Batch of 2 targets.
Target 1
Amino acid sequence: MSFNTFGHLFRFTSFGESHGAAIGCVVDGCPPRIPLKREDIQRELDRRRPGQSRFTTQRQEPDAVKIMSGVFTDEQSGEQVTTGTPIMLMIENVDQRSKDYSDIKDKYRPGHAGYTYDAKYGIHDYRGGGRASARETAARVAAAAIARKIVPGLTVRGALVQMGPHKIDRSRWDWNEIGKNPFFCPDAKQAKFFEEYLDGVRKSGSSCGAVIEVLAEGVPAGLGAPVYAKLDGDLASALMGINAVKGVEIGDGFATAAMSGIENADEMRMGNDNKPLFLSNHAGGILGGISTGQAIVARFAVKPTSSILTPRKTVDRYGRDTEVVTKGRHDPCVGIRAVPIGEAMVACVLADHYLMHRGQVGEGTAWPFKPGA
Ligand SMILES: Cc1cc2nc3c(=O)[nH]c(=O)nc-3n(C[C@H](O)[C@H](O)[C@H](O)COP(=O)(O)O)c2cc1C
């Protein structure tokens, strides 16, 4: 199976299956002399880790990461830093329960990847979805812990802004709330409601979707390219590449279709820092495929978990009609754990574009230009 590598200059190749011995990635292209400790990566993995509340899968994976290569102690600072060589990150799988899948091993779960995988490869590790499992996304979160260090001053944060049909109240948005509830929700009141709502969804033998918003601040103007490496295009591709993601929008996204040109235009004034000051950010920080220097805003929709306790009609590998019920341990709303994964993909795209930008134009232009020069 090919296509396991993300990126151009900041690249990683992920490996591993849900119920295999280990998962991980090899990060290539990370510049040398960037301080990197195991804890920097572990901190990010701990945010994605399963089994942390009753609202996510009860699979107990410590997701303990090992840095197998690519770091060394810097003589000057005494700190562990990257060497510029491939960094291999490995996470052992310790809580696989393959037995949970033996009843459904030949049956396709509607909404899951079993049928398409079989139609293409003819061999499928049914245990936990094999390579199609979101377990693979731990590797992306690990790689992104390194990506986050590449763009100076970059912060990437994400939040769950809708669960099922229920949106948060954006006037109550408080980033400090994100770490205080099990949903990465910035609206404390709505987070309380989500507890009740999600318990109900689970008890009914079903699941629900979610919308996640990712905000990247400290992105310099100029990342991206006008044609085949548009920053918004690459962000959309990276976010759509997360399991169960069915829609992506940048800035006001789909809502721009209903706006007038007057409403949608982000007017400009000259700021005090010799940079343009945009009076709004409907564009989500990207114009013509290139970053404006404003915050980048991306939103993505995650579908409801397909593994549910309610029997569903399906077929098996041998072409027979049957029914499937998925027991095992599943997230009732996979959108919750998708928050750190969305942040990870945004961080990796920005690191890759930052290195490509520097490779082509170095320090960039001396904007604003002198008239007539
Ligand atoms: C964090 C996360 C956890 C997931 N866990 C499950 C799960 O427990 N059960 C399940 O059926 N799907 C789960 N999924 C979604 C499937 O991996 C995904 O729906 C499946 O591979 C089919 O791909 P598609 O939905 O992108 O078309 C999860 C997705 C994410 C992002």
Target 2
Amino acid sequence: MHAPSHRPLVLRHAEVLLTMDAGRREIADGAVVVEGPAIAWVGASAELPAAYAEALRDGRAEAVDLQGHVLMPGLVNTHHHMYQSLTRAVPEAQDAELFGWLTNLYQLWARLTPEMIRVSTQTAMAELMLSGCTTTSDHLYLFPNGARLDDSIEAAEAMGMRFHAARGSMSVGRSQGGLPPDELVEREPAILADSERLVDRWHDASRHSMRRIVLAPCSPFSVSRELMRDSAVLARERGVSLHTHLAENDNDVAYSREKFGMTPAEYAQDLGWVGRDVWHAHCVKLDEAGIALFGRTGTGVAHCPCSNMRLASGIAPVGAMRRAGVPVGLGVDGSASNDGAHLLGEARQALLLQRVGYGPAAMTAREVLEMATLGGARVLGRDDIGALAPGMSADLVAFDLRGVAHAGAWHDLVAALVFCQPGNVALSVINGRVAIRDGVFQDVELPPLLARHRALASSLYEGARHPHLRAG
Ligand SMILES: [Zn+2]
């Protein structure tokens, strides 16, 4: 299923080809040739090598014409909780900050089932793919009622999306001074054993890999110091990445100071949670010393501007991070704290929010597009995605800019991608396979998926509000 096309794919006549290659080339009337899972050639359409032109004439290659489109590397999403697509805009959690918001939602999430994980993951991936995303991470940290990370991995395979599945966990319940209710936490030996099982079963470290496992205790306020440290040891033994939430808001920092006597960055360092194989979500309140530490060690950050605004967490100092050499990617974050998951839209919000905090020159369109592609790739520890060049994975998207949203912006179509209101992709190619053509999924039926998602979301919400109505 979802094998790359057996014929070379020639994407040509793109109005602008944004390569994100070493020279950051932007090629007018650009073309890309895809062979198998990788990119074979990149250049101007007029310079297409004769062998490919001949293959097109003989029908041994397939052409896709992209006049009026910007063609670019697929976007990389570095932070999400896809199960939350079932609990968007929940009235009880609309107007709270992080800790109050979580407390209101935990009781809903305690009723998640394996089917809910599968359907919500596929729905969240459909939304991301339409918005230009081709690689995503997902941080799943609660496993009630028999749910497993395998449920979301199988969902990703059905969608054909490049996936870094983060095995989240919570082990410190309310009775131990943590935030989550006791019924949602797991025993730490079971978490570590399941992490090992998942790496054995699913992790693929190879180039062009479609599936990697990440170890991801949920946050300092829901797991113990020991689990953080043991997870880091295990991740390094097995060569997988580490991910968690860090320094999300002032309360988060206060918790760290009170409970551990350290800033979040000091806590991370103390537990071995810095390095090129680690990335932290948010870091809105990462202090100067923390930024320097992350820069020195290559520790990555997933910047989630909409979620930070939604929960009034603050403005992450992304410019200072980038200047210090911190790898920064974008994340839409879970659908319950960012009820929209449009990754190109998230890039637009990142640009706008930096300007609110730090002035009109704080971030350019090209910088934020770099964060959304190469930045995300670096955060996930990959050098085979995020740019279009021979030998890179064939993950490409094209946006048709001939509509009303981009009228008047044709003097700089690359900047228009984020200055104007972002739309959905016309074309998405992932691992050499056309997933979306003319804005339509090629082998996913969206209406039945959404109908099932709607039914599950309403049973989850109504069931939690009226527990006496719970059917068997
Ligand atoms: Zn999150």
